Design the sequence.
């Protein structure tokens, strides 16, 4: 009986590996498991190799897991193409299509060789049971169900939903294939059997979605009224969902000619008084940087999503990396302070998106949501979220006295000044990228410039004191520490648990607000810390450097970072921690 | 409303005699004729001497960044279609750095008016080549003369399928004001190229006195405003002839983008989940 | 007898204040003085208020100086418009146009009131002597020559050059005006006379130019073959000079449709094997950031000049600020390391530009020259530069064996691989923004990505060890320290001397290479340092923060920074240093 | 030289049946006919499925960033005019994000050839609207149909004053190869819009079988290649008619930009100071 199973499957384009993964995910979700799935493709648009990882667990899962418990290779070439993305270990049950032939010696080279390697005549069985090799993956699902006790009827229900009405005969064929798979499992028991524990108690209906889905939903909940952008992997899905949904709420979506127009139109909408958003990934964000600076000096609310991918330049467009933090914090010219929020899980993306809109509107500033390809595109079965706990912020609109000889950029205590919008009588003003006086008129005065810089920075001070934008996991007294953000933070959460299980007491700081740097939060967290790691998926370790800018990081706390594509595994983090001490 | 109601207290920093003084006058007059209160007008520009113009009106102004007035204006218009949205800037702002946005703004056909103050030079940066500078022009960045043909704002915008394309000069104030007014009243994207001389860096033959001599009102030529191909043919003379007035006006303007958006919002409204239940769209069925 | 005089003059557009300053500068240069002039204008393109500062000295001068020794107001309104740019002190000789009327109380408000305030009937004298008020500034030059012993004949020579042939009568008129000014000085001696000391020994012929001139010359000397860009204040002059000169050397200049095309064409030229350059200021640099990232991953040499101006966004386009350092270091997405060199004086800009080309070519990387409006546009009379001491680097081109199955991105010891270019037989390869293997083919392998990131960073290691890119001024054993860069470094040099004169021992570190951060250099410099300042003209103090990223800065060393427009004065730096101790 | 000499060892990652397979074939043939050795060819592209094309040739390739192939290509050409410079990309790369560079590349008239693989969709990003997508098209980002008219690559480039404008389809391989060859041989900026179907995200009526039925060779219509206005008139049918072949070819091509640059370099050469004495230009006289 195990509480956590990680499956990995690879095949060529036609094999339907990914849809098999989705069936597994759906079935597990229906049974009340927490489940998570990531896909990976070759560079081909269609027909290339493809793979997926599916993780099922009783407890909530926060990352795709490490070494596979179960690996399925429909052919060896494609399987090995994914290398480190589908890691095998001695305890992995390795299943392969019989006609692919015995495992090549490549396997040995990969280090830890699975003790249990089983050939299944997948194609042959499919042809026999279903009369077509299209049913290959149903054979596999049957076998997995048989060996690991994945409830069969939920898989069947899923297939029925998929084919049921449209193609009853295809459904029937697949049902037969499933059965023959189960049969095979019965007649070929595993040497050391493993079955997945049942979920106890009532099963809550799960949400099936990825980080981009959650971002779009968060924006809709926060009351986004306008979205404009330009397609780019891996952020396009957000525009895609809003293109379907936003009209329903009286909003509009504009697919623009480029990213500059994308942020330009969004900024125009904000100038017009609307909650507004744009989205892109690294290359597009680079193009947006000039207008991000305009949003800062014009003090206009704007939410900018950057779903990071491997860089620099076009880089690795389909792989995760946390390499855009420097850009997010520093890309505009001049003195600019721009809040950056990083979601750490699929579900967290919903909350973070709402935070982003609230901060943008309350402080009249552009806010960057710094997501990454892995969180954005991994599908999870997560528990429904109680939205009643989120409050929504609106921008401060001038009224009464504010509007007698209205000063758009009034120097106030908080640094925030009431903001009007076209259509509001007596609120007329000149927005501009040129430095301005309180009224909004252009100025060349260095003194006024200093005052306005001061205002633009001061108004964001409260952010660094917001406890809800930081989380400490584990024993706050621990002298061994982890700091991590975004996708890597999910891995670190598990690392903390794993370390604990191994008798190592570790605490973890997760800043949702990655910039500006909250000195106090870090200083308190580092109290008494002797050793630690700042864990992030980038060559330079960008958060570590940014924290150093403002905080004296204990000598014993060092960066643990590497280039993107292959996310960290809890185990390697724990062993790295051990090396430190 | 009178012209003076649209004039702000900000003192223009243009060089004495700059053509843009005339242009802003023409805009005051056109706006007065239309009569929308200033707070219902959004006036977006880029960067350049000409792009200073919103600040000299009492409308909501946005003197944004170089070349981006059109995308920003589209965001404004889509967000609040009730607004009267004006867009203005220089030849460089519009057809050099901003040139990529023009065809898309045109084809989206929102009801906004784009005024280009075409002085065949970069004024604010003190006299370099602009995209409309004549071939061979000597400037500080082309001391031996430019090696390129100028672009053709009128022909380009016609080719982009713009429903209202006109040209004017402050040398004919009533004519210019009338054309601006007609452009604003046109229900869709409208474009007015105004020959607005730069007295500091411009050439002698680009000044108002010359305009007075050169200008040929298209009306007087009996041009048929509804003949798009003929309009293109005439537009090909840009830089040689100074035609003023309307080159092309679509006799039956198609629905605007914002009108179609309104329809779509109405159609889709019924499908809206309460925002607090928005996540239900991902509930596993 | 004084060795250093700072003049300041202000008037309205027509008054010719600036050309008067130029006459002064030229005359001084001809007499062998070191001289420097800065101009400042209102926002008007023409006809607005204008001012200039001219500093004459026996010793080389490194900044425009602080409080004025001599101030000239042609009318009060315009004079006060420049506020802090024309600071008065008790010892300032304040000269004003009589018909402007007695000094308004504004003067008192400005703090230190000059003891010597003298009215000169400038217009009246001009009309009388020259028959036109156009000669006003010649009256002033005459007065100044009389009071401060600025050699008259050099001024005359200057005017002759200016009007001599073209308009002999105008020249004659101005000569008469000069004489009457001198006469006025004779008949109205100063209460406490001050005369400028003569330059001893032979007078070397001086160069009269500004930082942008030096940058263009440096590029020509380094062998630039292609320049493309888009006009923007305050960088346009570089394109302007190259548009005149580069053809002569068989090169070409392309004024592009925007900054993206500007850097795109320049990158194309580099791909084609040419030494290539682009230039802009903040807003344009923001637009270039995507292609800067492309240059990094494609490993193409490219020199990018950023003449900083006040930001964010359009900001203060005609004022100096050091606010683009963060952008220069971090603007592209992904993990990018890009050398940044900052010139500290007009003359230094020549050397730094040559360094930039050498580094770009040797290491196949984009290099940013981070200048600023003040250095770029202040005219100086400087000593000729011996160019024989500069060596020029060329990129490593593949030959012989390299070209059998050529690997463009070969993983080498140094990280630098031979680079071919179209036209070279057997050197054919695919350049790309996509991550690649050694041969240049696109890859999605995380392992290869890590290797290539490593290569791109490693190849720049030697830079941080280059002594010639760092300068230490003052006593290396001093326990009080200054660190400064760019324009502010020039001020700090004088602060060190001033401090010494006041018995305070201070040392100064000037990094020409501001990024990557040379840990060792800073650590050595900070040895034994108790207190100090990092002096820079930006709201955030960007160098201070960047150094902290990699170096443990002593607690006693703190940022001394402020928003742009008004450069630092040596005196305020020294007094700030005193406060620290 | 034969076609195969221009084919690289890199295996195309295009979907089976993608129109771009045909396009690269046509380019191999055209290059073979011209016969320049691969190392004297620079092939620049942006980003997109189509922009992968340089990698499948043996030329020097530069698969740069989205929309910037033309500026880069101009830098290459000006730096080394002896090179044969090709530029290629998708409809989105060329007329959406890259649209601002086209008019300026055209008016500078360097001798380079720009090939757009027009599939009316964004392929690489998996099927969103492209600037040439027909009005009303439903895609993942326009589930209720697009609200814009498509742009018109042919008419735009004609309006920009391009000296050689043609259209082709891989459905007619010999015709396409011939047009590409003619474009490359044209001494100046040449543009070929190739209807290259996206089999994965494209519409049925955009596929090669349809092209075979629809295509109308302009030759067969007796169109006069030297009549620019008539060419514009025909180009207005883009999206309705599939005309193939040459729309316009300037009978007397003006000197190219690089030719004028060479002259200028020659004229100015005498004025060159020795580089080591370059600072003398600032010596106070
Ligand atoms: C991104 C960016 N690039 C360049 C500039 C510098 N700049 C300001 S205005 C301008 C061009 C002005 O010419 P035009 O648009 O014709 O307006 P005009 O001044 O002639 O009215 C330029 C190049 C800038 N401000 N921002
Ligand atoms: C700056 C930037 N923006 C967006 C993208 C994402 N992207 C890559 S290709 C592409 C468009 C592809 O369409 P097209 O140019 O028509 O080429 P096709 O794939 O259809 O051949 C987009 C939006 C990118 N790579 N870079
Ligand atoms: S420079 Fe030219 S365009 Fe600018 S204000 Fe002066 S006259 Fe007008
Ligand atoms: S997606 Fe379309 S354009 Fe891209 S390779 Fe496949 S068929 Fe070709
Ligand atoms: Mg202009
Ligand atoms: Mg396409």
Sequence:
């Amino acid at each position: 009986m195990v509480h956590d199973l990680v499956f990995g499957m690879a095949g060529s384009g036609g094999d339907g590996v990914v849809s098999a993964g989705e069936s597994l995910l759906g079935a597990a979700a229906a049974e009340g498991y927490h489940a998570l799935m990531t896909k990976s493709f070759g560079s081909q648009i269609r027909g290339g190799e493809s793979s997926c990882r599916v993780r099922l667990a009783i407890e909530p899962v926060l990352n795709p897991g490490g070494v596979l418990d179960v690996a399925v290779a429909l052919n060896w070439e494609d399987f090995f193409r994914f290398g480190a993305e589908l890691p095998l270990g001695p305890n992995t049950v390795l299943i392969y299509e019989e006609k692919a032939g015995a495992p090549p010696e490549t396997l040995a080279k990969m280090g830890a060789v699975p003790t249990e390697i089983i050939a299944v005549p997948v194609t042959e069985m499919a042809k026999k049971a279903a009369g077509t090799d299209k049913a290959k993956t149903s054979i596999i699902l049957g076998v997995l169900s048989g060996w690991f006790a994945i409830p069969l009827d939920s898989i069947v229900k899923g297939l029925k939903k998929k084919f049921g009405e449209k193609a009853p005969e295809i459904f029937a064929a697949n049902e037969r294939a499933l059965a023959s798979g189960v049969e095979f499992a019965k007649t070929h028991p595993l040497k050391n059997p493993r079955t997945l524990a049942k979920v106890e108690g009532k099963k809550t209906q799960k949400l099936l979605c990825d980080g981009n889905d959650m971002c779009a939903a968060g924006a809709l909940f926060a009351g986004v009224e306008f979205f404009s952008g330009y397609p780019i992997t891996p952020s396009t899905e957000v525009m895609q969902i809003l293109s379907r949904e936003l009209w329903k709420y009286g909003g509009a979506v504009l697919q623009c000619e480029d990213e500059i127009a994308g942020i330009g139109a969004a900024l125009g909408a904000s100038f017009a008084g609307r909650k507004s958003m744009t989205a892109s990934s690294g290359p597009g964000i680079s193009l947006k940087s000039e207008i991000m600076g305009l949003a800062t000096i014009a003090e206009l609310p704007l939410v900018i999503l950057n779903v990071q991918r491997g860089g620099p330049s076009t880089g690795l467009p389909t792989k995760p990396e946390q390499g855009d933090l420097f850009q997010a914090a520093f890309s505009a010219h001049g003195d600019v302070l721009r809040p950056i929020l990083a979601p750490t899980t699929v579900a967290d993306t919903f909350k973070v998106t709402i935070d982003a809109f609230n901060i943008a509107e309350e402080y009249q500033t552009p806010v960057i949501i710094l997501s990454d390809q892995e969180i954005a595109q991994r599908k999870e079965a997560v528990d429904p979220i109680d939205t009643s706990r989120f409050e929504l912020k609106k921008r401060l609109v001038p009224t009464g006295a504010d509007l007698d000889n209205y000063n758009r950029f009034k120097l106030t205590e908080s640094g925030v000044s009431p903001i009007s919008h076209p259509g509001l009588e007596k609120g007329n003003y000149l927005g501009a990228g040129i430095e301005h006086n309180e009224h909004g008129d252009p100025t060349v005065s260095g003194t006024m410039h200093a005052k306005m810089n001061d205002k633009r920075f001061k108004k964001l001070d409260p952010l660094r004191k917001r406890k809800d934008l930081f989380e400490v996991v584990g024993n706050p007294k621990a002298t061994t520490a982890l700091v991590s953000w975004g996708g890597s933070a999910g891995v670190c959460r598990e690392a903390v648990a794993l370390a604990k299980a191994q008798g190592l007491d570790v605490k973890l700081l997760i800043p949702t607000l990655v910039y500006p740097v909250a000195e106090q939060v870090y200083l308190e967290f580092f109290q008494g810390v002797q050793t630690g790691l700042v864990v992030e998926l980038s060559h330079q370790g960008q958060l570590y450097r940014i924290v150093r800018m403002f905080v004296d990081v204990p000598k014993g706390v060092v960066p643990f970072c590497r280039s993107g594509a292959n996310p960290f595994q809890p185990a390697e983090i724990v062993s790295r921690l051990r090396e430190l001490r | 409303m009178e012209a003076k109601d649209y004039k702000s207290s900000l003192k223009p920093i243009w060089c004495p005699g700059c053509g843009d003084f005339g242009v802003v006058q023409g805009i005051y007059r056109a706006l007065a004729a239309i009569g929308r209160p200033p707070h219902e007008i959004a006036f977006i520009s880029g960067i350049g001497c000409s792009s200073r113009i919103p600040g000299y009106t009492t409308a909501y102004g946005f003197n944004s960044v170089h070349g981006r007035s059109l995308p920003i204006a589209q965001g404004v218009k889509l967000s609040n279609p009730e607004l009267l949205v004006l867009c203005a800037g220089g030849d460089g702002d519009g057809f050099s750095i901003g040139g990529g946005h023009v065809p898309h703004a045109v084809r989206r056909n929102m009801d906004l008016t784009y005024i280009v103050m075409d002085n065949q030079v970069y004024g604010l940066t003190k006299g370099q080549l602009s995209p409309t500078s004549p071939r061979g022009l000597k400037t500080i960045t082309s001391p031996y003369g430019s090696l390129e043909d100028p672009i053709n704002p009128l022909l380009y915008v016609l080719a982009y399928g713009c429903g209202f394309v006109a040209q004017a000069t402050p040398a004919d104030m009533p004519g210019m004001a009338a054309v601006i007014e007609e452009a604003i009243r046109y229900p869709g994207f409208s474009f007015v190229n105004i020959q607005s001389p730069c007295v500091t860096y411009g050439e002698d033959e680009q000044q108002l006195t010359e305009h007075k001599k050169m200008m040929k009102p298209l009306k007087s030529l009996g041009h048929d405003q509804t003949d798009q191909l003929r309009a293109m043919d005439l537009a090909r003379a840009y830089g040689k002839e100074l035609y003023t007035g309307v080159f092309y006006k679509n006799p039956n303007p198609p629905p605007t983008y914002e009108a179609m958006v309104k329809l779509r919002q109405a159609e889709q409204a019924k499908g809206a989940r309460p925002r607090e239940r928005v996540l239900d769209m991902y509930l596993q069925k």
Summary: Residues B 90-92, 119, 121-123, 130 surround magnesium ion (ligand 5) (CB under 6 Å).
